[in-house]
Amino acid sequence: MSRRTDDRLTKRQTEVARLAARSLSDREIAKELGLSPHTVHTHLRNIFARLDISSREELTEILDYERD
What we know:
CATH topology: Arc Repressor Mutant, subunit A
Structural class: mainly alpha
Strand content: under 5%
Shape: globular
Number of domains: 1
Distance between the termini: 13 Å
CATH superfamily: Winged helix-like DNA-binding domain superfamily/Winged helix DNA-binding domain
CATH class: Mainly Alpha
Radius of gyration: 11 Å
Largest sheet: none
CATH architecture: Orthogonal Bundle
Number of strands: 0
């Protein structure tokens, strides 16, 4: 990736992305952040669009790659 995901995601989207990459469910992420599961789902849909990906697995790979 040429740009870090933090540069392309809002602060809240970054929080959701990091929790999703830890394999938390939408419901678990919602509870952790004080959101509804529907809001988490919407954030994930927008994250996938911004990063041009289609799965949590791809999201995890991107975040793991950036961590190295």
